[in-house]
Amino acid sequence: MPKILTITMEVNDAEFAALLDRIKERGAVEIVEGGEGPKPSGETDARGVIWDARFHASTKNTNQDGSWKARRGMSDAEKSDAEAYESAFTNPAPAAAEPEPVTDDSQIPAFLQKPAAAAPVVPSAPTPPAAPAAPVVAPTPAPVTYDALIAKFTAVQADPKVGSEKLMANLARIYEAAGCSADGSSLQTNETQRAVVMAELEKL
Question: What is the model's pTM?
Fold first, then answer.
C-alpha cells in the first residue's frame, strides 16, 4: 500500500525544479501558487525580530550575536525584503513628537481665539447746561439837556428840508414814542424822554 509523505525543506529554485522532476516520476503533483506565504511564528531572536520562514532558516538556529540565521538560497529581492523586515524591529520609526503648546495667540487661527474682554464703559461726565444768553441791552443814549433839546427844535424849524409844518405834523407821534405828555412839559425833568425825542428829531 503506497504511503503519503509530506516534507518541508528549504531549497533554491534550481533544487526545487530538480526535486519536482523527481517527484513527478512517482505520481501526480499539485502546485499551489500565490497566497501570502508563511506567517511569522511569534518566536524572537536576541534583537526582538520575530522568526519568519520567508527569511530565516527553518532550523531556527541563531548566529553568534543571537540573530536568526538567514534562509539559504534567497534571491537578491528576497534578501532586500529580509533586511527591510528585520529593520522594522531593530530600527523602529521614532514616535511622533508631541506638539508644543501654543502660548502665542498670533499662532492660533482667528476663529479659535477667545474674544478679548471688552473694556468697561466709563460713563462720560454730563455736559453742563449752556449758560443763558445775556440779554441784549440797548445802548444807553447820550444824556440830553433840556437846553440842547430846545436848540434842536429851533434848528429843525430852520432847516429848509424839514421846516415848521413837517415838525408839527410829526410832533404828536414823537411825543407818543417818548412817552411824554401831550404838551411836552415832562421833557423839562425827564432826561430819558428828551433822549428819545432828540433821536426822533434826527430822523426827520
Answer: 0.33
